[in-house]
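Exam prep: given the inputs below (a chain plus adenosine-5'-triphosphate), describe the expected output before reading on.
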Amino acid sequence: MSNTGKKCVVIHNGSWQTVAGFSNRETPQCVIPSSYIQRDGQREAQIFGTFEMLDETQENDPNSNVYTIIDSRGLPYNWEALESQWRYIYEKQLQIDPSELPLIISVPASSSEVDMKIVHKYFELAFEKLRVPTLQIVVEPLAIALSMSKSSALVIDIGARECKITPVIDGTVVKSGVMKSKFAGDFLDFQVTELLKDRLPPAESSCQMWYNSQTWIQQFKNTMLQVCDRNLVEVQRLHEEQSNQLQPVGFQQFTSNSLTQPKNFLLKTANGSKQTISVELKDCLKLPEYLFQPQLSNKDFPSSDGLCELMSKSIRKTGATVSSLGTPSGGGNGASLTLNEKGGASSASMGGTTSKNANTATNASNPTNAPSSGISPEQVYSILLTNVIITGSTSLLQGMEQRIVNELSIRFPQYKLTTYANQILMDRKIQSWIAMSSMSNLPSWELGKWFSASDYEFVKNCAKR
Ligand code: ATP
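Solution:
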């Protein structure tokens, strides 16, 4: 089934935020939390939408609680709430009936068994409950890569619940190379609260916790936290050595450990009180370092879940899989794509580029034409490293891109490295939605299959037999 040129509704349900709008508009109609407030015992009293939820939180009803819709793998688990959220989006934000326009939604790259169950649930919701005419389900990191005119890329998505690394080769997600860890935005929220727990009253309800993470914790991460450009432990050791060296009288102030410098943050809480909080620079660097070295926050956390290890493992596994199979394994079909300017126009501007001693194969200079057979692991490394896409709102932490470049350069020193990260703050936050919207506008978009209610009936009948 084709849907060329038709306006669609595009909904992206992330674990933290949901973005929805029309495919023929450059910006979405709404960016709302992927959670809702429910007053105890009142099923009908579900409150969706950022401002509605903020107002409800400020009223401070002790019987209200915040519930989530999406689980830690980025998939819905609370289907009733998802239905209510979509109804709210259609009615209040888009102001159309769901039966009027085709719908595009996203799923994260994950294992196929879970996918089929989830797809079935999505069909039920879209066709049976909302009566959507046609539905397309796109794989989020694939849409991001293709919308940036890249049929091969390493997509690093640092979001709220998860940090996901997805290798895409020749328009196909290489499932064996998909790496995930829980060390992302929500983990940082917890660490910020822990850091400041002695200076703040504890959050007593889930509403208060939600309010904090939507307001001051996000500002704190944005303005105070800083990713160190290399391993923080080494930097700290260096600073300590320097400050321990004997200095001439009168010069100590210039050589004192700069990591102990204070940084100030003006904190405004839900009850309107204001307080200036002073934190040492080393604490502002320490928290984001946990994303790279989780074992520093708790020795029980495996170092293999750190971002550097995940990136390295993903690249090496993809190299091994693609070269051994000849074609990438996993879902999707392996067609090579050349995207039109629409996909390119919405693509991100270039972030940092580090050129290295290029000991690379010839096709590496033209990574989008990568052959899908007879390819060596080194060629795969080269293709991925020249197309590193950094996305997800937690990647907006100061210094994140530079650190990723530095870590990849250390691990793959002989390869040319190019990273792409959208420099427009708001666009990075809604990059998945922009990518899905771009995909729906492509006239030659053949990877995206449109499903109708009759397809759903067919799937149901097959399942019964
Ligand atoms: P996921 O990818 O886990 O499904 P998502 O796509 O819904 O999540 P994102 O918008 O990618 O979520 O990331 C949300 C996280 O990014 C939250 O933890 C939020 O606090 C954090 N965040 C938002 N803006 C910034 C910023 N400017 N600096 C640092 N962190 C930020």
